From TrEMBL:
InterPro entries for this protein: Biofilm_reg_signaling, EAL_dom, EAL_sf, GGDEF_dom, Nucleotide_cyclase, PAC, PAS, PAS-assoc_C
Name used for this protein in its record: EAL domain-containing protein
Domain PAC: 136-186, 381-432
Domain PAS, first and last residues per copy: 64-117, 180-256
Ranges where the GGDEF domain occurs: 462-595
Pfam family, one: EAL
Compositional bias annotation for Low complexity: 17-32
Source species of the chain: Pseudoxanthomonas putridarboris
Region ranges (Disordered): 1-39
Residue ranges of every copy of the EAL domain listed in the record: 604-858
Length: 865
């Protein structure tokens, strides 16, 4: 550790060279007492002994400080001690020389003085690494006092410095190494040999310009992708396919020895291009290592040298490429062995007609016409043709032909013939896959749009109907059981729809949990309704996932051409509108599209449009519904309720616009406004002398899922100088199942602020006790769905009793919503529910009305921690 009194040169500062300035008064006091005649002799002896011990310890400390400084300054590389917040605590002489600054220009300032480009949170990964007991190493560019930059490699480790958790950072100037690397790279780029460097996993680390030219790689392409082994067919000089362990680079890595001048044939599967290369691979070892860390391979392109050799012919065969020549004057056709094999003829094919007989009739005419065009002096051709071998096996071939160069009479036409059957099969497979949903095996969105467009364009199909099917409560399965269960539900649902529709319609998965059924209603006008009933019936039985069972139903919208649209998107959109109405009226049903539904959809769009501007136009206001002690009616808190007065649409109920705001995402901005306005009103009541009123604010899950909810609440409380307990945040049960670290951290941060945390409408959703006990919440709110039925409805009574028992067992507060009668109040009191709100006490009140209610009955405020 740095001595507190050590100066830059290692000597002790201050007046006394043997005593630290901090101990000087103590030493003087002890010495005076030890020599004072009034001090009893035994005490003077003890004081003298203590004085000697202190001086000895002081000298030892000075020696240790001097040794630290000497060692610290002896390190030839810049060394700095950095506090947790990034403040430089000490710097050695090498650091002052490297940065060309005095010690006082750096010590005591943030590390940014040495590197102004560091990000704000640059110490986070450093501490994460050091806390695991590891050393953190990074290359950065530091700055000297004159503003010049130089690269350094920084090694950081933990150190306890004067009792503080700190970092010791050693920065080594790597300017020379960078310059050497640059010169090495420049040398590599000037060579005409292709150079590729692989690591031990044969992953590419470097590729020079010559190698990129040899392999045909453009600057905008990724070298590792273009040289991936699965893109190349690699053969040896005999045309035999080479395994990975036989490749020169892998052999050099395995043996640790250089592999020289190996001839490789490299055939690009997509470009259908063959290269012949010689490769020499040299293993490279890290200092002190016994096995290679990487391998450098030098490539030379020898394709031109092998063009006319037997090796080239073998490679052509391996790539299923045959050669042919047609002697026009003698009508003689010459085919290589590979060309004969591709056509699969039972006998030798030596005339043009014998070759044409291997093709389908339309393709015979195409090839003959192309040959005649070349004979007449036209350009060469490149055709894809289909035919059959002698045993009936079908094939696809690519035939390329042109007149012999330098033959003015075009007496000979030569070319190649390649078997592309596998490519065509792959194309067909891709075509099918492009039209198929991979999860359910049904048609996908693009395929059904194409098919629907074709049917609507067919004049013989007068009435085409669309059934738009959306699964009810699908998201619940995804949230509770996970996406794997959600995928399994979609597979089971598609099977049930298949069984219900049969051959009467075409089925597609349109996206997410939505399906389309397309049917022709020309012969049976009631077919769409019949299919809708059949699909609903198929969902009557519950879905099982292990021990869990879920009742999943469907909502269906029907639209029919030409009445409801004559274009695919229009017809589907109207079916979607009908489905949306069915889902919101009563799930597990179907609805036919009408113009009235279209108008409702237009109204929804208008609401959403106005909603986006409502905050900016100052159209929202808050009312406050009192929360009262059920025993005596004393107001103990309030809940903030939002109201919207739009200049075009008038007053809109929250249940009309909140769901739209959730869907569009506007709820986040609206919720932020509500949060700030509620806190502003609390501060206003406080300034009126009414004390601190706790106000509950509903928080959307979209708000909660954001990254800055706790920071936002902290800032608003600070803005109005409010304690956290003045604010209560009410969340839906959905947050109970989101036990991700971010969720738990947000709840912990809010609770640390003192904010009261409550689960709203508890019991309506799909919460469970194991989720409930994990979150640091304060209370529950009993939904009005259950309080409205007490004390007469046995089911509601049972739910209220259960929720009350849960709250008591977990030590949580409980507030009942929707209290509208004296009988309900009495029941809840007997149940042990302490607080309630509802029209029995007051509706939502304006701020002034609420203030009058408080001033009429003084508020006894107890803010719960």
């Amino acid at each position: 550790m740095t001595p507190s009194g050590a100066s830059d040169d290692g000597k002790t500062s201050g007046q006394d060279a043997t005593a630290s300035p901090g101990l000087a008064p103590l030493l003087s006091s002890l010495e005076a007492a030890a020599h004072d005649p009034a001090t009893p002799a035994p005490q003077r002896t003890l004081l003298a002994q203590a004085l000697d011990a202190l001086r000895m310890k002081q000298r030892e400390a000075e020696t240790e400080r001097s040794r630290y400084r000497n060692l610290f300054d002896a390190v030839p590389d810049p060394v700095s001690i950095i506090a947790e917040d990034g403040t430089v605590l000490d710097l050695n002489k090498a650091g002052m020389q490297a940065y060309r600054r005095r010690r006082e220009e750096i010590v005591g300032r943030n590390i940014n003085v040495l590197n102004p480009d560091l990000p704000r949170d640059h110490l986070v990964p450093v501490w994460e690494t050091l806390n695991r007991g590891e050393t953190y190493v990074i290359e950065v560019t530091n700055m000297r006092g004159d503003g010049t930059r130089f690269p350094v490699e920084v090694h950081s480790a933990n150190i306890n410095f004067d009792g503080r958790k700190s970092i010791v950072a050693v920065a080594r100037d790597i300017s020379s190494r960078r310059e050497a690397e640059l010169r090495y790279r420049e040398l590599m780029e000037t060579l005409d040999k292709g150079i590729v460097v692989h690591n031990r996993d044969l992953e590419i680390q470097y590729c020079n310009g010559a190698a990129m030219r040899i392999f045909g790689i453009r600057e905008d392409q990724r070298v590792d992708q273009e040289l991936a082994l699965d893109r190349w067919h690699i053969v040896d000089e005999d045309g035999r396919e080479m395994a990975r362990h036989e490749l020169p680079a892998q052999r050099a890595l395995d043996s640790g020895q250089m592999v020289e001048s190996v001839l490789l044939g490299m055939y690009h599967r997509e470009k259908k291009h063959l290269l012949w290369l010689t490769a020499t691979s040299v293993p490279q070892f890290a200092p002190g290592a016994s096995i290679p860390a990487q391998v450098t391979t030098l490539y030379s392109d020898v394709t031109e040298l092998k063009r006319d050799s037997a090796l080239f012919d073998r490679a052509q065969s391996l790539a299923h490429i045959g050669g042919w020549e047609w002697d026009i004057g003698r009508d003689r056709m010459y085919l290589t062995d590979e060309a004969q094999r591709i056509l699969g003829a039972a006998r030798s094919l030596d005339t043009l007609d014998s070759v044409l007989l291997c093709l389908r009739e339309p393709d015979r005419r195409r090839l003959r016409g192309a040959l005649e065009l070349v004979t007449a002096g036209g350009k060469g051709f490149d055709l894809e043709l289909q035919g059959s071998q002698a045993d009936g096996h079908p094939f696809w071939i690519r035939v390329i032909g042109d007149a012999e160069p330098g033959d003015p009479g075009a007496s000979r036409i030569t070319g190649t013939m390649q078997d592309i059957s596998q490519d065509k099969q792959a194309e067909e497979t891709l075509r099918i896959q492009a039209r198929t949903d991979p999860l359910t095996g049904l048609m996908n969105r693009d395929a059904v749009l194409t098919e629907l467009g074709a049917r609507l364009a067919d004049p013989e199909r007068e009435r085409v109907a669309v059934l738009y099917i959306d699964l009810d409560r699908f998201k619940m399965v995804n949230d509770v059981l996970g996406h794997n269960a959600g995928d399994e539900l979609l597979v089971q649902a598609s099977d049930r729809i298949r069984g219900a529709v049969g051959t009467d319609g075409m089925i597609a998965r349109f996206g997410g949990d939505e399906f389309l059924v397309i049917c022709d209603a020309g012969d049976d006008p009631h077919l769409p309704e019949k299919l809708a009933h059949a699909v609903l019936g198929a969902f009557a039985d519950a879905f099982r996932f292990g021990k869990d069972e879920f009742a999943i139903t469907a909502s269906i919208g029907l639209a029919q051409a030409p009445r409801d649209g004559q274009r695919p998107q229009q017809l589907i959109q109207n079916a979607d509108i009908a489905m949306y109405d069915s889902k919101h009226r009563a799930r597990n049903g179907w609805q036919t599209f009408t113009q009235e539904l279209a108008q409702r959809q237009q109204d929804r769009l208008q609401i959403e449009t106005q909603l986006r501007r409502a905050v900016d136009n100052d159209e929202f206001r808050l009312v406050y519904q009192p929360q009262v002690d059920l025993r005596n009616g004393r107001v103990v808190a309030a809940e903030a309720l939002i109201r919207w007065q739009n200049h075009q649409l008038g007053e809109l109920r929250p249940d009309l616009f909140i769901s739209h705001a959730e869907t569009t995402g506007d709820i986040v901005r609206i919720g932020s406004w509500v949060l700030r306005e509620a806190c502003r009103q609390i501060a206003d009541w406080r300034d009126q002398g009414l004390g601190i009123v706790r106000v509950a604010v509903n928080v959307s899950y979209r708000q909660f899922a954001g990254d800055d909810l706790a920071d936002r609440v902290r800032a608003i409380l600070a803005e109005f100088d409010l304690p956290g307990a003045a604010l209560e945040l009410e969340f839906t049960e959905r947050v109970l199942i989101e036990d991700a670290p971010a969720t738990l951290r947000t709840f912990a941060d809010l609770r640390q602020l003192g904010v009261v945390l409550t689960i709203d409408d508890f019991g309506e959703g799909y919460s469970a006790l194991n989720y409930l006990r994990r979150l640091p919440i304060h209370g529950l709110k009993l939904s009005p769905l259950f309080t409205e039925g007490v004390p007469n409805n046995r089911s509601d009574v049972a739910v209220c009793q259960a929720v009350s028992a849960i709250a008591r067992s977990l030590g949580l507060g409980l507030v009942a919503e929707g209290v509208e009668s004296e009988a309900q109040r009495q029941f809840l009191l007997q149940l042990g529910v302490p607080v309630g709100q509802g029209f029995l006490f007051a509706p939502g009140l304006s701020p002034d009305e609420f203030a009058r209610r408080l001033s009429g009955a003084p508020l006894e405020r107890v803010l719960h921690a």
